Amino acid sequence: MTPTTYSRFIRFLQEELALPSASIRVALRFREQDQGPLPIILWQYGLVTLEQLDRIFDWLETTQSPDPSET
To answer: What is the dihedral of CA 38, 31, 37, 48, to 10 degrees?
Structure first.
């Protein structure tokens, strides 16, 4: 994920899903330990519901730019 996309993703979590900044910080700390994808960590620790996780994956799918090596 590019830095720009990452910033937009954090904004999406805060604005569209109304996740508190503290919850995002907690997930980022766990991510440093687990090295897993942030959406899964948010879900594993109960910070998002399955419905919110689905919205996150939908957002990521529509936002991610295709890898130039795949064309």
So the answer is: -40
Q: With a cut of 70, list the residues of the chain below it in pLDDT.
A: 65-71
Could you give the C-alpha distances from 31 to 28, 49, 67, 68, 71, in angstroms and in order?
5, 18, 24, 27, 31
Rounded Cα distance, 27 and 51, in Å: 18
Q: Residue 33 domain-assigned?
A: yes
Domain count, the chain: 1
Range of the domain at 58: 3-64
CA dist., res. 25 & res. 18, Å (int): 14
Contact (CB, 8 A) for 2 and 26: no
Q: What integer pLDDT is reported at residue 67 of this predicted model?
A: 53
The residue among 44, 41, 39, 45 whose CA lies nearest residue 17 is 39
